[in-house]
Structure formats: structure tokens, C-alpha cells
């Protein structure tokens, strides 16, 4: 039984993961060795909760309970010492994760399940220095972790089925939609799909087919509108697989198939245009307030969509 949870890393993903568990009644130890990161995490968690309160998703009592359920700490041994489930949410550096995971295994109860939130690193690499690699899996959340329903689960052959069942029940209990991959592939599922779309979007930018605003609108007002409730494979079913064979016959040779990082993305990085973190990407973000406003508006739209899905009782086919 999972009762106490530890989240190691208080960055964007870690704080969101801690928040969603805390909102659903779990006691969460949130660990980070960086005091600035921890202070920022506490402020942003409170801001996220206020938005949920203002949108009627949680009560003021729920807000206070969630805040009470999260215990910040800079002591890893203290964080994991009595945890039954631990999520590592450190930066995507393999050597750093090895170090943290080894410390987690050394100090956590032998019955604790260990997970990583990695989006890029193979499980077989992450667990290679653990004495009991079968106790570890990947639970890949998506930003913002407290709002986006999907969680991808990656296991190894020796992962006990009981462990997978326990984690599936846990994630469903906190309102997530978990999926278990049959086998591990680089990027898992969602990031592979996102990368494929981004590669084609970058190609459209590079060949000056349309403005970046119109390319984004083509997704949000078109396929993205449908994809919230019907995925690409079911979309193909409804459109007719004979029709889609014709579409692919015509389009497949025309789609970008660059096997390396697209030149336009390399150039943006070379110029130091990294998006919101530098104030310039495909769009311009003049100051921190504008960035905060855009994130607020994004989360507001996500909350409204989440509310609609819950109101309509949308559940994917199992």
C-alpha cells in the first residue's frame, strides 16, 4: 500500500508531481538541495492552487490540505526514509540521476517502489547501478504535471506485475490516465509523436509556407481540436483507411524526413533564442510578467478542458 510519497527534485516537473499527489490526500516529501529552487517551488505551488480555487476545481480547504501535505526538505535520507513510493525528477543528466537513484536505494525502505520522471533516458541505463533494478520503473508525467492527464509507464521484463498494478491504481486514484508501454522505445510514445509534428512544423517554417502563428493555429484549431478526444488512429478510422492510404501515398514522399536536428532549430539555439527562458524563441517574450501571464492563460485553458472532460465523463477505452 502506498501512503507516503517522496519527490526528489523541486523543479517544474517535481513540484507539479508533488502537488497532484498532495491534492489527493498523500503526504509528500519534496526534496531539493537548492534553497532557491525550493522557495520558488513553494511559491508556484501556492499560485497553482490559487488558480484551481479560483476556477472552482478545488476548495479553499483542499488548498490548505494540499499545502499541509507537502513537506519541503533538503535532506534526501529524511525525504525517502519512510516513503512507500519515490519519484526522481532531477535534470536529464544520466550521471546525476545515477547518483541520486543510488542514494535513494540506500536510504529508502526495501519495499519502496522507485520511479523516474525521465522523458529521454532508457530505463535499462537508469537502473544499471541499482542492487534491485526490478523495483524501478518510469512514470513519465507531462508539464504541467498537475493538469495534464497522461502518464506513461515503462517497465523492464523483471518488473513484478503486482508493482505495475499498484502504480496503475495510484495514478488513477489521482485522476491520471496511465498507459503501459509493451516495450521501451526512445522518446516513449507521446514525445515521439510530438517530435514528428515539430519536425514537420519546423520544415514549414524553414520553407516559409506560413507564419509561425498560422502554423500553430493550424494545429490548435484543426487536429489538436480533435485530438483531445479522438487520437490519430481513430481519426483515420473515421476518415476511412482507404482515404488515408491515398493521403499517405500522396504526402509521405513530401514530408520532412531529416534524420538530424532541423537546421532552423539549430540556428535558433546558436543565436541563443531558447524560448521563454531567454525571452525570444519563435515568439517574443519581453518580460517576466508577460511570460507569467502566458503560463497563467495556458493553465487556465487546460483547467477548462479538464473540467469539460470530467463533466462529460470522458474515459478512454481500456
3D structure, described in words:
This protein is an alpha/beta fold. The protein has two domains: 4-180, NAD(P)-binding Rossmann-like Domain (Rossmann fold), CATH 3.40.50.720; 190-311, N-(1-d-carboxylethyl)-l-norvaline Dehydrogenase, domain 2 (Orthogonal Bundle). It has 14 helices and eight strands. It has an eight-stranded mixed β-sheet with strand order 3-2-1-4-5-6-7-8, with helices on both faces. Strand 1 (4-8), helix 1 and strand 2 form a beta-alpha-beta unit. Helix 1 packs across helix 2 (35-54). The protein is globular. It starts with a strand and ends in a 7-residue tail after the last helix. The mean pLDDT is 95.
Defining traits:
318 residues, alpha/beta, Rossmann fold, N-(1-d-carboxylethyl)-l-norvaline Dehydrogenase, domain 2, 2 domains, globular
CATH topology of the largest domain: Rossmann fold
Q: How much strand?
A: 5-15%
**Structural class computed from helices and strand pairing:** alpha/beta
The neighbouring-strand order within the major sheet is 3-2-1-4-5-6-7-8
The tally of structural domains comes to 2
Radius of gyration: 21 Å
Helix content: 40-55%
Secondary structure layout:
Layout: E1 4-8, H1 12-23, E2 27-31, H2 35-54, H3 60-69, E3 70-73, H4 76-80, E4 85-88, H5 94-107, E5 113-116, H6 123-126, E6 136-140, E7 150-154, H7 161-173, E8 177-180, H8 190-206, H9 212-220, H10 223-227, H11 232-239, H12 241-251, H13 263-270, H14 288-311
Parallel strand pairs: 1-2, 1-4, 2-3, 4-5, 5-6, 7-8
Antiparallel strand pairs: 6-7
Helix pairs in contact: 1-2, 1-3, 2-3
